[in-house]
Amino acid sequence: MVWSLSMEVRVALLLLLLTSTNVRAPPPPPSEPGEEVPAGSRGGRHRRRAFPGPYFHPSSPVNVTTQLGAHAYLPCRIKNLGNKSVSWIRNRDSHILTVDRYTFISDERFSAWHEAQTQTWTLQVRYVQERDAGKYECQVSTEPKMSHFVDLSVITPTVSIAGKSDIYVKSGSTVNIKCVINDALEEPTYIFWYHEERRVVEANSGYRLTVHREPPDTSIGTLTIPSVSMADYGNYTCAPASLQMASVMLHVLIGEHPQAMHDTNSAAASTTGSATSVGSSSPATHIHGRRAVLGVWLVTVLLLATT
Ligand SMILES: *[C@@H]1O[C@H](CO)[C@@H](O)[C@H](O)[C@H]1NC(C)=O
Ligand SMILES: *[C@@H]1O[C@H](CO)[C@@H](O)[C@H](O)[C@H]1NC(C)=O
Ligand SMILES: *[C@@H]1O[C@H](CO)[C@@H](O)[C@H](O)[C@H]1NC(C)=O
């Protein structure tokens, strides 16, 4: 049998024997189910190698963590995909989300795209919600089908205002209200502040708004009121992008007395009450009015008595 081989083939075989002792072909990657190459095809009789089937790259992640409200990217690295299709399936309800570039769910937050250089099909989930957490299957249309699972974790940052839920400050002092966002994988794209129902802006208001990051996963938004006055009294709410809100009540002290909405005893309340927009229909106004009537009446009585 061997003797019937042509001279060229024998030379080729000899060369192969000589070189194979020193030069070894790299072993196939561990997870290559489609890589079986018929034994004879390596020997030189057939130079054309069988096309190896698709396989998942071992570096393709199995866990992805995303913050609530952010975008999640679930990569699926597939080698030798050839002309096979890639589907993304949500494990929870077996819903087919995408097939290749096409989205098969009415939820527009889901989409998939292919990156040729890295041979990656990525599922994107925009504005991640808590219920998006769970397993996702990247499925290749081989026969039988091949699957790679990615587990998506959704982290929900906590939003709170540092300190107590009521802040007492003296009129004229500087106040910093700090909105602390813990477990924040990324800084919020914005933090809105509200004083009562009105959005706080820096322009012409005297207020200062800053945001800074404290590694590894804390963001702090600060509202600074340089010189507190009665007009600053009230409820302050911090509302970071796509996260919960947190509120605090600011009380302004004149002397030692807290300036509260319905404080009818405080002399300061009567003198400066008109400067605050709050409590215009409070009992203080009525007492004010009655005192004025009483005053006019007394003056009248006195005038009458002296005549
Ligand atoms: C993925 O997460 C699971 C639990 O959430 C953990 O047991 C596993 O070790 C993680 N795998 C990797 C590769 O990080
Ligand atoms: C994929 O390519 C193979 C040959 O490379 C061909 O036989 C097969 O029909 C193709 N499949 C599709 C879905 O185009
Ligand atoms: C402050 O305002 C927020 C948002 O409007 C509201 O949820 C919260 O209950 C208010 N707090 C107080 C003490 O009024």
UniProtKB/TrEMBL annotation:
Domain of life the protein comes from: Eukaryota
Region (Disordered): 24-51, 264-284
GO cellular component: neuron projection membrane
Span of domain Ig-like: 54-153, 157-238
Protein name (database record): Zwei Ig domain protein zig-8
Cleavable signal peptide: 1-25
Pfam families: I-set, Ig_3
InterPro entries, A to Z: Ig-like_dom (IPR007110), Ig-like_dom_sf (IPR036179), Ig-like_fold (IPR013783), Ig_I-set (IPR013098), Ig_sub (IPR003599), Ig_sub2 (IPR003598), Zig-8 (IPR037448)
This protein's record includes keyword Signal: yes
UniProt-listed GO biological process terms: synapse organization
Keywords, alphabetical: Signal
